[in-house]
Design goal:
The chain is of the alpha+beta class. It contains 3 helices and 6 strands, in the order E-H-H-E-E-E-E-H-E. Strands 2-3-4-5-1-6 form a 6-stranded antiparallel sheet, covered by helices on one side.
């Protein structure tokens, strides 16, 4: 697990060739966002907020859950078999747990993953 010496980590994951049926499942997205924070040691603030879009070109679902440590968001495009995820946190977490969890749930074929150190000049003594 990376050691945070700055404000936090920002994981981005773009997945291609995902299961289009699962990408269109609003209940699955809700469950995913509701369960993921606990898996990486974060604390939820309420429940996921979900919006579904049915127009052909942008058909899919977007969801976000606020956590004490920041947020987790997921956007799906079922007709394009694409999923985009962000986990932004001032708390240390293991990105591989998120990657494995999302890949398994949505049967993702190929992924682009970035882990970005955020706030490199932030006074970390105040939050860590």
């Amino acid at each position: 697990m990376p050691v945070i010496r700055n404000y936090g980590l920002h994981l981005t994951l773009d997945g291609y060739g995902a299961d289009h049926i699962k990408l269109a499942d609003i209940n699955l997205l809700f469950e995913t966002l509701n369960e993921l924070p606990e898996k990486i040691g974060m604390r939820k603030i309420g429940f996921p907020h979900i919006a579904q879009f049915k127009e052909a070109e942008i058909a899919g679902i977007s969801g976000i859950i606020m956590v004490v440590e920041s947020h987790i968001s997921i956007h799906t495009y079922s007709n394009k078999e694409f999923i985009s995820l962000d986990v932004y946190s001032c708390k240390q977490f293991n990105p591989q747990i998120v990657i494995d969890y999302i890949k398994k749930i949505y049967n993702i074929g190929e992924m682009e993953i970035n882990v970005i150190d955020r706030g490199k000049k932030f006074p970390v003594a105040n939050i860590h």
